[in-house]
Design goal:
InterPro entries: Band7/mec-2_domain, Band_7, Band_7/SPFH_dom_sf, Stomatin_HflK_fam. By secondary structure, the protein is of the alpha+beta class. 59% of the residues lie in helices and 21% in strands.
C-alpha cells in the first residue's frame, strides 16, 4: 500500500514536470522561434502556448529597441594621428529568423561591422576633420550599416560618437600648436595695434601741419588783401587831387631838405617852374632871402 502511494506521487510529479515543460509564455514585444527536433517550425506570438515537451525548443527574441555601448577603439586618421573613439548605438530586431538561425551572434557581427566601418571612415579624414566632424561620422556610419546589418536581421536606429580623444602624444603636440598659434595671433595683434597707433599719430601730425599751413596761407592772403585795399584806396584818393596838391607836397619836402645842415639844395628846373606858379613859393623864397 505504501509502495503504491509512493508510485502515485512519483507519477504525479513526473506528469506535473511534463506539463510544465510543455508550457511557454511569450512576453509582450517578444516572439518565440519554435524548433522541433532541431528544425525550425513556426513563430510564436506573445501569450500562452503549449508545446510538445522535451523535443521542442523555443528561443525568445526581443523586438524592443536595445541600447548598446561599444568599448573604446583606437583608429588612425589620414594624417597618421591616433585617436581613441567610443561608440554607442540603438538597434532592434527586424527579422527574428535571420537573427536566430542565420547568424551565430548577430549582435557581435553588427559590432564588428561598426568598428570596421569606423576605421575606414576615420582613415579618409584628417585629425582636424575627425575632431570637428562628429555629425559627418555619425551620418556615414548610419549609411554604411543600414545596407549591411539587414543580413543579421537587425536595424541600427541610431549611432553616436560618444568621445573622440587624441592620444597623449597627439594632445601634447596639439597644445603646443595651439599655444604657438595664440602667440602668433597676439604678436600680429600687437603689431597691428602699434601700426594703427603710428598711423593715427602721423595723421594727426599731418593734419596739424596742414591746418597750420592753411592758417598761415589765410593770414598771408588777408594781409595781401589788406595791403591791396590800402593801395587801392590811396590810388583812389590820389586820382581825385589836382596838380597843386602834388606841388604842395614837393614844397613840404623841399622845406624839410632846406632845414638840413647842407648849404646847397639842387632842385630840378621842372620843379622850380612848378614852384613858381604857387603864391606860397614866392613868399617862401622871400623869407629865405631875409
Amino acid at each position: 500500500m505504501i509502495l503504491f502511494s509512493v508510485l502515485i506521487v512519483l507519477l504525479l510529479i513526473i506528469l506535473a514536470f511534463v506539463v510544465f515543460t510543455g508550457i511557454r509564455i511569450i512576453p509582450q514585444n517578444m516572439v518565440g522561434m519554435v524548433s522541433v527536433l532541431g528544425k525550425y517550425q513556426r513563430q510564436m506570438e506573445p501569450g500562452f502556448h503549449v508545446v510538445m515537451p522535451f523535443i521542442t525548443r523555443v528561443d525568445r527574441v526581443d523586438l524592443a529597441q536595445v541600447p548598446l555601448r561599444l568599448s573604446e577603439q583606437s583608429v588612425i586618421s589620414r594624417d597618421n594621428a591616433e585617436v581613441i573613439i567610443s561608440l554607442s548605438l540603438n538597434y532592434h530586431v527586424t527579422d527574428p529568423y535571420k537573427f536566430t538561425f542565420e547568424n551565430a551572434d548577430s549582435v557581435k557581427s553588427m559590432v564588428q561591422q561598426s568598428r570596421a566601418h569606423l576605421r575606414g571612415i576615420i582613415g579618409t579624414m584628417d585629425l582636424n576633420e575627425v575632431l570637428n566632424g562628429t555629425e559627418r561620422i555619425n551620418a556615414a556610419l548610419s549609411k554604411e550599416l543600414g545596407s549591411i546589418t539587414d543580413a543579421y536581421g537587425v536595424n541600427v536606429d541610431r549611432i553616436n560618437i560618444d568621445t573622440i580623444q587624441p592620444t597623449p602624444e597627439i594632445q601634447e603636440s596639439m597644445n603646443k600648436q595651439i599655444n604657438a598659434t595664440r602667440e602668433r595671433e597676439a604678436a600680429i595683434a600687437r603689431a597691428e595695434g602699434e601700426a594703427r597707433s603710428i598711423e593715427l599719430t602721423t595723421k594727426a601730425q599731418n593734419d596739424a601741419l596742414v591746418s597750420t599751413a592753411e592758417a598761415n596761407a589765410k593770414a598771408v592772403r588777408l594781409a595781401a588783401d589788406a595791403e591791396a585795399y590800402r593801395i587801392q584806396k590811396a590810388n583812389d584818393i590820389l586820382s581825385t587831387v589836382d596838380a597843386n596838391y602834388l606841388v604842395a607836397q614837393n614844397i613840404d619836402a623841399f622845406r624839410d631838405v632846406a632845414k638840413s645842415p647842407a648849404n646847397t639844395v639842387i632842385v630840378p628846373n621842372t620843379a622850380i617852374d612848378a614852384l613858381g606858379e604857387l603864391k606860397v613859393a614866392g613868399q617862401l623864397l622871400n623869407t629865405n632871402q631875409k
